[in-house]
Amino acid sequence: MLKLRKVSMSVCAAALLVPALASQAQATAAANRPQSGPARPLTATEILNVDYESGTLDSGIPGLTTTHATAPDAEAVVQPGHQSSYADQHKVTLDDPGYFSDGAPRSESATDQLSNGVFHIGDTQRYEVSVLLQDWQPYQSGDSTSGDIVFQGKYSGGQPPAFYLMTKRNAVAFRSPQMNQQTTVVADFRPYINQWMNFRVDARWTTDQTGYFTVSVELPGQAGYQQVVSYTNVATWQPSSPANFGYLKWGLYRPSESLANGDVATRIVQHDDIRIFRLS
After folding, report:
1. What is the Cα–Cα distance from 169 to 264, expressed in whole angstroms?
2. Distance CA 56, CA 8 (A)
């Protein structure tokens, strides 16, 4: 039988305590470390591509929702597109009923009727969109500070969006209403008016604190997407009432805007290459 030498209890306790303290310190440091999104590279598998190369408002995809606004130029397919022949264009003129739909001044397209255009709790997906602000009148001191929404991740049932991209003064911001989080992702879009800006949103849809939103941008002259913000360890699925699914909307939504408020009368925006990927 192997005999062990006796050591004092205080020495043993100290020996056991040192690695425990070191482990606790490492855990605390990791918890306080800035989060930057998923820890490992993800594989992206494309499941939907709306590129408008059919030259039609539905991009040749049966079931793609087109504008509900009645003005003949509220939505149109225009040339050229983003590195392609065609793009989608939405126009909204304030205080004109032809550009008023679903209770607000807006003209939008959506994926709510497509089985490959919706998301559910537990999904991890990537959304890409190219946006061109056509002849966009910049913000000047004294102008209305209302924002124009150009891209949304929506819940079913007409609820507030899970996230959206909007122009705000002369910037583009990403906002999640339920999380009460907003971050500027393009500090000044004025140099890029009438040019294509590319946006990417990676999302893990969860009801607990394991979800994330990661936003990346590719501006004219940049070679590839640059990550600009990441919200990690958050609940991303927070509808105001039960929702069966979520979906994408793009176009122009001008909530709370009017000529009486001093808002710009007419805005026009173009979209192209709306893509959804499954991340795994």
Report:
1. 12
2. 83
Domain harbouring 247, CATH code: 2.60.120.200
Domain count, the chain: 1
Q: Is residue 177 part of a domain?
A: yes
| Total residue length of the chain | 280
Please work out, in degrees rounded to the nearest 5, the angle formed at the alpha carbon of residue 104 by the alpha carbons of 204 and 61: 55
Assigned domain for 161 exists: yes
Its domain, for residue 149, covers: 47-279
Separation of alpha carbons 103 and 105, rounded Å: 7
Helix (H, G, I), strand (E, B) or coil at 217: strand
- Tell how far CA 133 is from the center of its chain: 17
User: Taking the CB of residue 79, how many other CB atoms lie within 10 A of it?
Assistant: 10
Positive/negative CA dihedral, 187, 86, 137, 70: negative
- Tokens linked to 93: 């003129």
Tens-digit pLDDT profile for residues 11-62: 333 333 334 434 444 433 333 333 445 556 789 999 999 999 999 999 999 9
In a domain, 131, yes or no: yes
pTM, two decimals, is 0.85
